[in-house]
Design brief:
Layout (H helix, E strand, L loop, with lengths): L1 H5 L2 E2 L2 E2 L11 H6 L8 E5 L4 E2 L1 H7 L5 E6 L10 E6 L5 E8 L6 E10 L19 H10 L5 E4 L3 E2 L15
Parallel strand pairs: 5-9
Antiparallel strand pairs: 1-2, 3-8, 4-10, 5-8, 6-7
Length: about 170
């Protein structure tokens, strides 16, 4: 549908599509783009909404991840990817499927990465899945000494279900 609606060019820019034939997770999806990317690149979850100002801050970093601080607890909801920071304020760990609590820093699914990502073996998204996770694969960069900066989102609208498309509810 996107290909049909947008076509091969948008605002004078040529568009190249990469199709993930087998749905094997976000890490696998990004790995399919290796031959069309170079240098640093921006990765966004296509179904979430972000602020332009936050994207501008994110793209100024060599390697970075957009994070949002939850304003309130989300009881019974174990669907957050919590970000742990090291003493330098960069990412040390990402813990998937965490219950939300006020003040918790969560992954917004927006990243600035570079070609080092493609040198890493894909890591499973969790114990109960055959999918490969982008955050799990990316964390190998941290373990090898790379610093991934945190950019705090001023606003984020997470879309995980059709009802989330209403902008009436607050971010995250």
């Amino acid at each position: 549908q996107v290909m049909a609606a947008v076509g091969q060019e948008f605002l004078g820019k040529k568009i190249r599509y990469v199709v993930q034939e087998e749905l094997l997770g976000t890490g696998h999806a990004l790995s399919q783009c290796k031959d069309v990317l170079c240098g640093r690149f921006l990765v966004l979850m296509a179904d979430d909404l972000y602020r332009r100002e936050d994207m501008e801050k994110l793209t100024k970093c060599p390697l970075a991840l957009l994070a949002y601080e939850l304003p309130a607890a989300t009881p019974g909801n174990n669907s957050w990817a919590e970000i742990k920071l090291n003493a330098n304020g960069s990412v040390s760990e990402i813990l998937e499927r965490q219950p939300g609590r006020a003040g918790m820093l969560v992954n917004c699914g927006a990243y600035v990465l570079d070609m080092r990502y493609f040198e890493l073996p894909l890591k499973p998204a969790g114990n109960q899945t055959a999918e490969f996770g982008l955050p799990q694969t990316m964390m190998q960069m941290v373990k090898s000494g790379a610093e991934i900066d945190i950019v705090r989102a001023s606003w984020w609208h997470r879309v995980t279900a059709p009802a989330d498309l209403s902008l009436e509810k607050k971010a995250a």
